[in-house]
Specification:
Layout lengths: L15 E7 L6 H10 L9 H11 L6 E7 L2 E11 L9 E4 L11 E2 L4 H14 L6 E8 L3 H12 L4 E12 L5 H8 L2 H15 L4 E6 L5 H13 L2 H5 L7 H16 L3 E8 L2 E11 L2 E9 L8 H9 L10 E3 L15 E11 L3 H15 L7
Parallel strand pairs: 4-6, 11-12
Antiparallel strand pairs: 1-2, 2-3, 3-4, 3-5, 6-13, 7-12, 7-13, 8-9, 9-10, 10-11
């Protein structure tokens, strides 16, 4: 799929309308869905279907607000915002782009060509509505994308203090190779031989089959199986499995059902005698994709079922609408980085807001956090 063409004509500020309101008061579903198709940088975690599932589960007090940018009445940008009173353990009140633990990208949805205008309007609003807030904090931003580039340009042109306060690189799949050629290039012959041996030994335990589903067939049962499989492992023991909390359990169900309805969901599973032993939910957002959630049966860990499933997942390289896939995994993840060789840098950014005194204080905070005088992004 071709990227949306950037708008080259100058955007008149008088034609822009930036508003911030509690999310439950907004009635922009159709416009939000249309914006997702026009976004210059895809982010399923900022799309309406995912955000509604997230806010229903994690914002019962209706504290999150939606900041929207319209151009001549058309929605061209949206980001959820929250006002927090603490930052990294310190009593630093700030405005932040709202991202929860189960969302893996914090980039706003912005129509191609409006990136600079969006950041200018958001920063201007933050300046005039700062209150006691010391800075604007944005997390989970892809560093190699048009939104970060535009934010760098805007903060530099305004001589506004800003800094990257954290950077990590997570595994990414981005290659013009075929699935088989990529697999051969990423893993040594010895490792591929070992994986074939594990697959053969596993097949001796019962009938082994792989399944890929892109529609709603059997979705509720699949979700229940995923939740049970994850809870049976170490995450269940530690209390961090999705099923350990009613909020996260309902969020996961709502998000996957909505993703399937939107045509975004791809489900993969490895079955042993019709019992899933490894499962993966991908979210397809051309030209990209995100590996949202995965789990495996730890009783079969010696056979590496998760790696076997990721071997099948390489077929996403054959999808003509997808040029990259974000693993959503922690940096240096021991499993996925055995196969996926590309990296995607993800950053957290803090930007000064308000008047001169507040910006001077923000400079001091950024210098203490980064160990260097803030020179911009």
């Amino acid at each position: 799929m071709e990227q949306p063409l950037a708008i080259k004509a100058e955007i008149c500020p008088a034609d822009l309308h930036f508003t911030v309101q509690p999310w439950r008061t907004r009635g922009i579903s159709a416009a939000w869905d249309a914006l997702a198709q026009r976004a210059g940088e895809p982010n399923p975690f900022a799309e309406r279907w995912f955000m509604q599932a997230s806010l229903n589960a994690f914002d019962p007090a209706n504290e999150v607000q939606l900041a929207t940018l319209e151009h001549n009445g058309a929605l061209v940008g949206i980001i959820p915002l929250a006002r927090l009173n603490r930052y990294a353990g310190y009593p630093f009140p700030h405005i932040t782009g709202w991202v929860h633990y189960n969302a893996f990208c914090g980039a706003p949805l912005v129509a191609a060509g409006y990136e600079h205008a969006f950041w200018r309007e958001l920063l201007a609003w933050s300046d005039s509505h700062a209150g006691t807030r010391l800075f604007l904090h944005l997390s989970h931003l892809p560093e190699e994308g048009p939104l970060f580039a535009a934010l760098r340009d805007v903060t530099a042109s305004q001589h506004r203090p800003a800094a990257i306060v954290h950077r990590e690189e997570r595994a990414m799949l981005a290659s013009g190779l075929s699935p088989e050629a990529y697999f051969e290039a990423s893993m040594s012959g010895k490792k591929r031989k070992e994986l074939r041996r594990q697959a053969k030994r596993l097949s001796e335990e019962g009938a082994l089959r792989f399944e890929r589903v892109t529609d709603c067939r059997g979705l509720c049962e699949w979700i229940a199986q995923f939740l049970a499989l994850e809870q049976a492992g170490w995450k269940g023991t530690e209390g961090s499995a999705l099923a350990c909390s009613g909020d996260t359990r309902q969020f996961f169900r709502d998000a996957l059902i909505a993703a399937a309805a939107a045509g975004r969901l791809e489900r993969l599973a490895l079955y042993l005698d019709d019992r899933p032993i490894a499962m993966l939910a991908n979210v397809i957002t051309p030209p990209g994709a995100y590996s949202f959630k995965t789990t495996f049966d730890e009783d079969y860990a010696r056979y590496s079922p998760g790696v076997l499933l990721q071997r099948e997942n390489l077929d996403i390289l054959a999808n003509d609408t997808v040029t990259w896939c974000d693993s959503c995994a922690a940096a240096d993840h021991p499993m996925i980085e055995r196969i996926w060789r590309e990296k995607r840098p993800i950053v957290r950014v803090s930007v000064a807001i308000g008047g001169r005194a507040r910006r001077t204080l923000c400079k001091a905070i950024l210098r203490a956090e980064t160990g260097a005088f803030p020179k911009g992004l």
